[in-house]
Amino acid sequence: MVLLLQYTLLFASVLILVALGGCFSEHSGVINLGLEGIMVMGALGGALTLKYINSSLPSLLIVLAVLVVSIVCGVVYSMLLAFACINFKADQTLVGTALNLLAAAAATVIAKTINIAEDPNNVSSTVQYVAAKKALVVNIGKFQFNWFMLVAFIALVCAYVVLYKTRFGLRLMACGEHPQAADSVGINVYKMRWAGVLISGMLAGVGGIVYITAGVSEWKFENGVAGFGFLALAVMIFGQWKPINIGLAALLFGFFRALSNVYSGFDFLAALNIPGSVYNMMPYIISLIVLAFTSANSRAPKAEGIPYDKGSR
Amino acid sequence: MEETKVADNSEYAIEMLGITKRFPGIIANDNVTIQLKKGEIHALLGENGAGKSTLMSVLFGLYQAEEGVIKKDGKEVQINNPNDANDLGIGMVHQHFKLVQCFSVLDNIILGVETVKNGLLQKDVARKKITELSEKYGLKVDPDAKIEDITVGMQQRTEILKMLYRDNEILIFDEPTAVLTPAEIDELMQIMKNLAKEGKSILFISHKLAEIMSVADRCSVLRRGKYIGTVNISETNQEELSRMMIGRDVQLVATKEDKTPGNVILHVENMTVPSKLHHNNAVKNVSFDVREGEIVCIAGIDGNGQTELVYGLSGLENITSGKIELSGKDITHASIRERSTSGMSHIPEDRHKHGLVLDYSLAYNLVLQRYFEPEFSSKAGFLKKGEIKKYADKLIEQYDIRSSQGADTISRSMSGGNQQKAIIAREIDKDPNLLIAVQPTRGLDVGAIEYIHRQLIARRDEGHAVLLVSLELEEVMSISDRILVMYEGELVGEFDPKTTTPEELGLYMAGAKRKEVGA
Amino acid sequence: GSKAPANDGATAGASSEAKADGDDATEATADFKVAMVTDYGDITDQSFNQSTYEACQTFCNENKIDFTYYKPEGDSTAERVAMIDKAVADGYNVVVMPGYAFAEAITETAETYPEVKFVALDVSEFDLEGETSDFNNETYPNVFSAVYQEELPGYMAGYAAVKMGFTKLGFLGGMAVPAVIRYGYGFVQGADAAAKETGASVELNYAYGNQFYGDADITAAMDTWYQGGTEVVFACGGGIFTSAAEAAAKVDGKVIGVDVDQAATIDGQYGKGITVTSAMKGLKATVNTLLSAIRDGQWDDYAGKISNLGIVSGEDTSLNYVGLPEDTTVWNDTFTKDDYLKLVADLASGAIKVSNDSEAEKPSADNVKINFQGNIK
Amino acid sequence: MSAQVNKTMAEKESILAKPAVQSIIASLLCIVVGLFIGYIALLLINAEGATEAIITIIKNYFTYPSKAAALKYCGNTLVKAAPLLMCALSIQFCYQAGLFNIGAAGQYVAGAGASLFCALKLGMPWYLCLVAALIAGGLFGVAVGFLKAYLNVNEVISGIMLNWIGLYTVNMILSSVKESASPYTVSLEKTNAAAVLPSLGLQKLFSNNKYVTIAIPLAVIIAILIKVVLSMTVFGYEIKATGIAKDAAKYSGMKEKRNIILTLFIGGALAGIGAAFLFLTGYEQWSVTQSSVPGMGFNGIAATFLGGLDPIGTIFASYFIQHITSGGSYLDKNVYPSQISDFISAIIIYLCGFVLFFKFFLNSRIKNKKNNAEGGNK
Ligand SMILES: Nc1ncnc2c1ncn2[C@@H]1O[C@H](COP(=O)(O)OP(=O)(O)OP(=O)(O)O)[C@@H](O)[C@H]1O
Ligand SMILES: Nc1ncnc2c1ncn2[C@@H]1O[C@H](COP(=O)(O)OP(=O)(O)OP(=O)(O)O)[C@@H](O)[C@H]1O
Ligand SMILES: [Mg+2]
Ligand SMILES: [Mg+2]
User: Fold this and answer.
1) A248: Cβ–Cβ under 8 A, 6 or more apart, which residues?
2) CA nearest A239: which of A224, A249, A230, A229?
3) The pairing of beta strand B264-274 with beta strand C232-236
4) Strands across the sheet with B218-223, in order?
5) Of B26, B224, B246, B414, which is best to mutate to test ligand 1, by the most ligand atoms within 8 angstroms of its C-beta?
6) With CB atoms 3.0 to 4.6 Å apart as the test, which of A16, B172, C335, D330 could cross-link to A250 if both were Cys?
């Protein structure tokens, strides 16, 4: 039970962070299909920080350092998307896909190059961070609390406030809905879209490091993040581009993901003797069914996916 | 301090002197000069594509002119973006509203000039100011309503409030009346006069000469990017204005012969159509006929179910109950395609959304209703491109559709007027028994309107049925043979244009009076 | 399988210069170049690719022999053949291939390149010859293949675990490939035998991770096991031990390593004493032996043979290709080093028989309650 | 004389102004710049062998010294390019209808599952297996289309979900035809030789590469067919109209829901056939333990865009992408990670994003020149 809760929260944290990232990007009008790639780059930055940081430092410091580096990596990488899609009006789905492929390849190449530089015999793309990773968690009884759960929660609250209560949020959403309108009242659409994409880079970058530290103390970058970025997109759409709904959707998805791993701990589930594949399919089937019932009224930001051109009307 | 002194010296609020603006391949404004006096309503008149919107966009900072200077209160200014314009007190209601559909009225008004405290929006402060403004100028709005839920008129009021909220002194209205109902137009005219009285200077673009005559103090005319001249309204008339604008005489009122209607072509019985947006019926239990050789007009204020009525007739929306017959054939449950092939043509209300595949060539768009016919496609399912081209060239010639590359022009790049001509050519050349035309002249200049009216009347004269849906009373009165007034989804009156007056129609349109109508 | 060919064929073909001098062994030494082709995984899979790679590299560095490795574009015979062709084209004449998946690639290339020496690991005669196999432990004249009896170290580990007093065990396989299956089947048999001896009621969770690396999903499953009472998990497959160790460390659970003595690796990272033992097989030793033999002109002793490598000696365990690490295993009163040595002796003498059915993806036992969970992912 | 010059200049410009020519130039530019960036990456990792490495990638099968081997491996590259082309066409076809078919990966999986199941379990001949793949892929497409048309489910999301569902389902189904001692499905050639796609003597052209089958010419023919369908038929007219202007399509009486579903059926079928084109050659066996969706479908996105969203261009783009991917496996792995060729193709795809801008830039330059020239004449 505790485990189910723990892993539900852990998976949900990843999904919340990344889905919120997608949410900011799309509210600014840019579809970010490259979340998966950004996650990988954020994860790489965070993992390398964990690897090199002095693990005897106070854990708060370690958590902060990891956060900062993941954010920087995610943000820098997402600039590739912003640059191509905002300034050069590139097809957003294409660039997003390219970023996913690129991140997987680049992260592996970078990790390998670093490893080889350290030890010519180590051509692996694995980054280990056993010692420093311990700083990320606190055991509360049987429950293993992860600081990133708190980060995700804070991100959720902040996202809500920023989108609905601040000037920035209002302007950002205007750019995703009707950029011409935003432009006509003196809002710099390009700037706002850059902001949206960079925020998505920041959140997805953090999501990446949370994902790879959620269960293990080393990561092999050839494996990427195994489709979590796409799952987060589903969460975002399921959550109707609204932070609170995204939070709930992430919990639902996280729950089923966790259940598929820990079901053997529940006697009645174990007794059902359902093949493992079915549990594995469950999160996808459930989300498909739920989407089928909820999508009729779903409304994406109107201008998302359409490059903004000052000249056109 | 010094600025105000200079300002006091100048007679003009804004002067645009020798403005030239080029787009690739076209000079949209060629050395244009207009001067806006303080406290006046200055009309700007010109054909479609004459360069009015462009000129206003230059003033509002959306475009930068290649040549020419802009002076505010006699002092030269640089306007590089809407922020500069706003700082100079220039505001604009755009031809196509620039409102965020899913935002509230309030959010739209404050967008760009939000009041914040500690980074958080202070909406209450804004709400107070908006309420004050709307009371002062008689602009009724609900600040918390979403734009997508309110009428076009309300949206326009929101746009005006946007300018007032920014304390703008110079107000630009780009074709504000094209989308309004007669009552709303009257209201707007009144508001504009009030604003002018308050000392605001107004630039007003319209194709409707009557409006200009009734509200403007002076009028400047553009033709093909060139400045033609400025006249005082008190010293001119509609004929002179249209001559200035087009360069020839225009027949402003359509003339037609009397004709006795023949057999019933369209028979509608107790039709009810649901509304997409709201959870009720937009058209309630409506019955009427349209006969050969008559133009029946559905009049009414926008949003009273006309759109849904046409959707129901054309099959774009399934009707909940009732019966539709076309030339005696029951088409109640027929598909859109079946209706079309059974002799129904439909000039849609929204030409960009429904009327055209904007990224297709003109030729492809001209066969949009007929591409599947043996004339244009082989049995194996191949398009006969040669035939399509030939047919397109014929229509382009016959209906005088102007475009840069003939049949190969991408429709998106054509002017609104010519896009509309293409649709009309396509729908009329199908030789339909019934032609449904929804606001076919919206946003077009008088030359184009004259042309379209002639086409509709020609259909009628050839003995076919025409159902016209229009919001413009003038149009309704001048070309219809029979008028049906629609109010809140019901037909509330039937009139003969020869024996009724716009005033009487207005009463029915506003729901003040009603009588039984039936087929 | 066919009989190994005459001496000269194997060595002479390696280089045209060497031909003249015929069987001069030292001359031939300078002329061989070693290439390894990886299986589906990379050489960093913390499993057989990596062990093989490291063994080759160490040997070649020490002997100043050209060595490189090739990684096929994808997971198919065609692509493995492409790399073998490339290696030969690049002048490599000893090709080392870890993994049963190479069987078909060997069938396709062995006869094409009679002068090249193929060293295969884990490729069984059945893999090579299919249903028609005569099981005479012979194969193409220029191929040597070593197949390990993984069921033996698996058996030892299972036996040891129960004897040590653990009653709630877990088996976490990587992917269900033959070697992993054999380890697992042996593990079950060993536990079963020990349970029978001690009379303890033993439970065993059995699952495959479906990948050779750990991640949050697998750690979650391992947490479920450990927190549900599992005391020791045999983490059998590449880097998958990371998930088991991660979960074990939280509740003071134990782990059994695989392939090599993983005590240092796992304990070093996750805490002292987590690894109770490792089920080892001598991949590195085999590679070393074979390459040395080639260097020393003794390839003919191996050419054309398929060796089932397991227990060679009941007395001197250092000669065996499989076993438990004697230095790092956490011996206790109920299972001492001597108990282990006796077990080896019994296995060697045939007193204990272990079945090696690599089709036993879902094993069963009499005295152990197996809770089979299939693929976790 | 000056008229002469003017004429050739005008001709040159008009060639440059042709969209097809621009697409080709743009794609080539992407490739060149992509390779250059890849080269820089190689230089950073190890400057010494970088030049040789980049040449190796470009040479691909030409790195084999013998012509026979080179031909054989040219065959291998083609064998893998064929399914890639099919996936690319799948994505492209749907893209024309305004649908982003990221589910091609799952439709590919479905096609693989169906064709292998029919071949190995049911012992069907190759043409029936091909049909089965077509139907299975098509049905996965239809699922996406149905959800989109009737329930407004975003096709990207349902596609992604179905990719995973497809993977697990196919793993389960194919478990019944896997080798007893490995996670791979049994050998196609040995189990049911009749299910192997016929070669019609093609393999002779490629040093008897047994994987070279009619799949390769078929894929090219299908690409041409798609081109014809899209640009010359009523169906293509409707599909594209539905894609760019859904409401206008509905207005003109096209059945836009039917078109969406039909489009995705065809898209799915193309991807499904693509899988059959690979798995029915025996080139690859399905591993029933794979836990990630094969990348073929995603790589198709790349090929489509590099091909300038044109079926004919996509033929060449698919080949090229496969060419450098295969080339990457010949790199010296002791020095360079093999992922460097993935890196290069990813960069090239990224650069494809700038194609639109490039064309715009080119066109406005041409226009400006024209204007200037006209101005000068006056
Ligand atoms: N963004 C643009 N790019 C290129 N050409 C443009 C652009 N905007 C306007 N034009 C051209 O400039 C000319 C003037 O257009 P403008 O919109 O100012 O006309 P208008 O007088 O407002 O017409 P309407 O009555 O139809 O609104 C048109 O011929 C049009 O082709
Ligand atoms: N991006 C553009 N490029 C070139 N020309 C444009 C562009 N946008 C608009 N135009 C031109 O600007 C003119 C007016 O455009 P506008 O959008 O006002 O059309 P409209 O409102 O549909 O027309 P109308 O005012 O006749 O109803 C047209 O001639 C059109 O061809
Ligand atoms: Mg205009
Ligand atoms: Mg207009």
Assistant:
1) A239
2) A249
3) unpaired
4) B75-77, B67-72, B12-23, B26-37, B226-232, B218-223, B41-46, B201-205, B170-174, B90-93
5) B26
6) A16
Identify the residues whose C-beta falls under 6 Å from ligand 2: A 312-313; B 48-49, 53, 95, 413-417, 443-444
Among D181, D284, D329, beta carbon nearest to C358: D181
Residue of A184, A189, A302, A313 to mutate, interface with B, max B Cβ within 10 Å: A184
Query: B22: how many CB neighbours lie within 10 A of its CB?
Result: 16
Ligand 1 atom nearest to A313, measured from its CA: 1
Nearest Cα to Cα of residue D215 among D233, D230, D195: D195
Q: What is the 3-state secondary structure (H, E, C) of A292-305?
A: HHHHHHCCCCCCCC
Taking only the tens of pLDDT, chain A with its 313 residues reads 788 999 999 999 999 999 999 999 999 999 999 999 999 999 999 999 999 999 888 989 999 999 999 999 999 999 999 999 999 999 898 899 899 989 999 999 999 889 888 887 777 888 988 888 888 888 888 888 999 999 999 999 999 999 999 999 999 999 999 998 998 888 999 999 999 999 999 999 999 999 999 888 889 888 888 888 988 988 898 888 999 999 999 998 899 888 888 888 787 777 777 777 787 788 788 888 888 887 777 778 888 888 888 765 4
Closest CA to D306 of D296, D295, D292, D320: D320
Counting from 1 in the atom list of ligand 2, the atom nearest the Cα of B419 is 22
Q: CA of B97: how far to CAs of A184, B51, B157, B306, B456, in Å?
A: 10, 18, 11, 22, 30
Q: Which atom of ligand 2 is nearest to the CA of B417?
A: 26
The residue written with tokens 């943000």 in the block is A75
Indicate yes or no: CB of D254 within 8 angstroms of CB of B337: yes
Tell me how far apart the alpha carbons of residues C357 and D112 are, in angstroms, rounded to a whole number.
Answer: 30
Question: What is the rounded CA–CA span in Å between residue B43 and residue A38?
Answer: 54
Measured from the Cβ of residue B200, the count of other Cβ atoms closer than 10 Å reads 22
Per-residue DSSP letter, C20: H
What ipTM does the predicted assembly reach?
0.83
Tell me which residue of C197, C125, C130, C115 sits closest to C159, measured CA to CA.
Answer: C197
Q: B458 — contact with chain D (CB < 8 Å)?
A: no
Q: How far is the CA of B211 from the centre of ligand 4 (A)?
A: 17
Decide if A158 touches B, using CB distance below 8 A: no
- Please state, in angstroms and as integers, the Cα–Cα distance from residue B196 to each residue in A30, B42, D332, following that order: 42, 10, 80
Does C have 3 or more CB contacts under 8 Å with B? no
Two tokens, residue B159: 């746009």
Q: What is the largest CA-CA distance in chain D?
A: 84
Identity of the residue numbered D329:
S
Helix (H, G, I), strand (E, B) or coil at B399: helix
* Subunit contact D100:A93, Cβ cutoff 8 A: yes
Per-window interface: D 252-291 vs B, CB < 8 A: 252-255
DSSP state, residue B305: S
Give residues 219 to 238 of D whose Cβ lies within 8 Å of B.
232-237
Whether C71 sits inside 8 A of D330 (CB atoms) is: no
Cβ contact A220–C44 (<8 Å): yes
Which residue is closest to C246 within chain A, CA to CA?
A216
Tokens describing residue A242: 């609204």
Contact predicate A38/A74, CB 8 Å? yes
3-state secondary structure of B200: coil
Ligand 1 neighbours (beta carbon < 6 A)? A 311; B 23, 26, 28, 46, 48-54, 95, 416
Q: For tokens 């009720």, what's the residue?
A: B280
Q: What is the distance between the alpha carbons of residues B157 and B177, in angstroms, rounded to a whole number?
A: 12
